[in-house]
Automatic annotation (TrEMBL):
The keyword Oxidoreductase applies. This is Zinc-binding dehydrogenase. Residues 12-344 form the Enoyl reductase (ER) domain. GO terms for molecular function: oxidoreductase activity, acting on NAD(P)H. SMART domains: PKS_ER. InterPro entries: ADH-like_C (IPR013149), ADH-like_N (IPR013154), ER (IPR020843), GroES-like_sf (IPR011032), NAD(P)-bd_dom_sf (IPR036291), Trans-enoyl_RdTase-like (IPR047122). The keyword Oxidoreductase applies. It comes from the Eukaryota.
Length: 348
C-alpha cells in the first residue's frame, strides 16, 4: 500500500509530518489528491485537544484521484472540507490525499485558483448554516422584500466576511463590526454600517443604526462577553436571536434581556454524525437536514456564487507547504493573521 505525507497530532499538544498509508474511500466516498489546504482557527485549537495519531486540517482543494463509482471524473478539480482529527471514519485534510463524501465537495470553476477554492468551504458553510438555518433569515435566492437589520459581529473573520456578503445578497440591512482599518473592506463586501468594536459605545452605535429594531445577530467572535454585549444591542421591545460559532450550553444574560435567545451552531453537523464538541448544544443527534442544506449550496457555489462574482473568496496568503503549517498556527495564536487566510501548497 502506498504512503502519503500528513500532519499528525503528537504528544505535547503539537503535531508533526509523518508518512501514513493513503486512505481507501468507502461506498459513497471519493479520494481526492490535495493540491492546496487552508488554515482555520479550529485547526490549531483542536490539535491541542486530541490524542496523538489524528490527521489535522479541514479545508482542501485538489483533484479527484478515485471517483469510486460517483458522478465525479478522475482529475476533476474539487474543493470541500472535512472534520479534521475525526475518527470513525478517519478524516483530515492536511495530507497529500483526503477521503470525503462524494456529495460534499464542489466543482472548482475554471477561473478559480486552488488557493481561492480552498478558503471557501468551511467558512462559507458555517455562514449559511448560521444565517439561513439557525437564524432563519431569507436566502439570497428569495431575498427579503424589506431590508430589516442583521448584525455580523467579527465581520473580518473568515466566516464573518461570507456572512456579510450573503446577508447583503439576501436583501438585508447589514451591520458589521470590525477594527477601523478594515471598515473599507467590510463596506466593499456589502456592509451598510460598520462599527468599531474597540469603541466603548459600540453597542449604542448598533442600537442607533438599527433604530432599536435589531432582532438577529451572528456572533463570529463568540467570546462570552461579546455575546452578552450583543444582547444589549437587540430590540429593547422584542429581544431577538443570537447565534454563536463557539459551542455553549447557556449564557447568563442580564435579566433585562430575558427575550433574547442564544444558540450555538457547528458546521460539522453536515456529516450526519454525532458531535461531541465542548458544550455544543445539539450533540447526540444526526442532522440530515443540515447535510441536505449544505449539498444544496454546494450545487450553487460554482456558478451562482463564485463564477458570477456574487461571493468573493477570503483574501489568501500562501505560506509554504505542509512542513510550514505549524509556523502558521503560531502566527494565528499570536493574533498576527488578520482579514486573510493562510494557504499551503501540498502538491503541484
Amino acid at each position: 500500500m502506498a504512503n502519503m505525507k500528513a500532519l499528525i497530532s503528537a504528544e505535547g499538544k503539537t503535531a508533526s509530518v509523518k508518512s501514513i498509508p493513503i486512505p481507501t474511500p468507502a461506498e459513497g466516498e471519493i479520494l481526492v489528491k490535495v493540491h492546496y489546504v487552508a488554515q482555520n482557527p479550529a485547526d490549531w485549537k483542536v490539535m491541542a485537544q486530541v490524542p496523538p495519531g489524528r490527521i489535522i486540517g479541514c479545508d482542501f482543494a485538489g483533484t479527484v484521484s478515485h471517483p469510486n463509482g460517483s458522478s465525479w471524473r478522475e482529475n476533476q478539480r474539487v474543493a470541500g472540507f472535512v472534520q479534521g482529527t475525526a475518527v470513525n471514519p478517519t478524516r483530515g485534510a492536511f495530507a497529500e490525499y483526503v477521503v470525503v463524501e462524494s456529495s460534499l465537495v464542489y466543482a472548482i470553476p475554471d477561473k478559480l485558483s486552488y488557493q481561492d477554492a480552498a478558503v471557501v468551504p468551511l467558512a462559507f458553510a458555517t455562514a449559511i448554516q448560521a444565517l439561513f438555518q439557525r437564524l432563519k433569515l431569507p436566502e439570497p435566492s428569495k431575498p427579503a422584500k424589506s431590508a430589516f437589520p442583521v448584525l455580523v459581529n467579527g465581520g473580518t473573520s473568515s466566516v464573518g466576511k461570507y456572512a456579510v456578503q450573503l446577508a447583503k445578497h439576501a436583501g438585508l440591512f447589514v451591520v458589521a463590526t470590525g477594527s477601523k482599518r478594515n471598515h473599507e473592506l467590510l463596506a466593499s463586501y456589502g456592509a451598510d454600517v460598520v462599527v468599531d468594536y474597540n469603541d466603548t459605545d459600540w453597542i449604542e452605535q448598533i442600537r442607533k443604526a438599527t433604530h432599536d429594531g435589531l432582532e438577529h445577530a451572528f456572533d463570529c467572535i463568540s467570546e462570552l462577553e461579546t455575546t452578552k454585549a450583543i444582547a444589549g444591542a437587540l430590540s429593547s421591545k422584542k429581544g431577538g436571536h443570537i447565534v454563536t460559532i463557539l459551542p455553549r450550553k447557556s449564557v447568563e444574560l442580564d435579566p433585562a434581556h430575558s427575550q433574547v435567545r442564544v444558540e450555538s451552531t457547528i458546521v460539522y453537523t453536515v456529516f450526519q454524525r454525532t458531535i461531541q464538541y465542548g458544550a455544543f448544544d445539539n450533540c447526540g443527534s444526526e442532522t440530515p437536514e443540515d447535510k441536505a442544506f449544505w449539498e444544496k449550496y454546494l450545487s450553487l457555489l460554482p456558478e451562482y456564487y463564485l463564477t458570477s462574482g456574487t461571493i468573493k473568496p477570503n483574501r489568501v496568503k500562501e505560506f509554504g507547504g505542509i512542513e510550514d503549517i505549524l509556523k502558521g498556527f503560531e502566527l494565528q495564536k499570536e493574533g498576527k493573521v488578520s482579514a486573510e487566510k493562510l494557504v499551503y501548497k501540498i502538491a503541484s
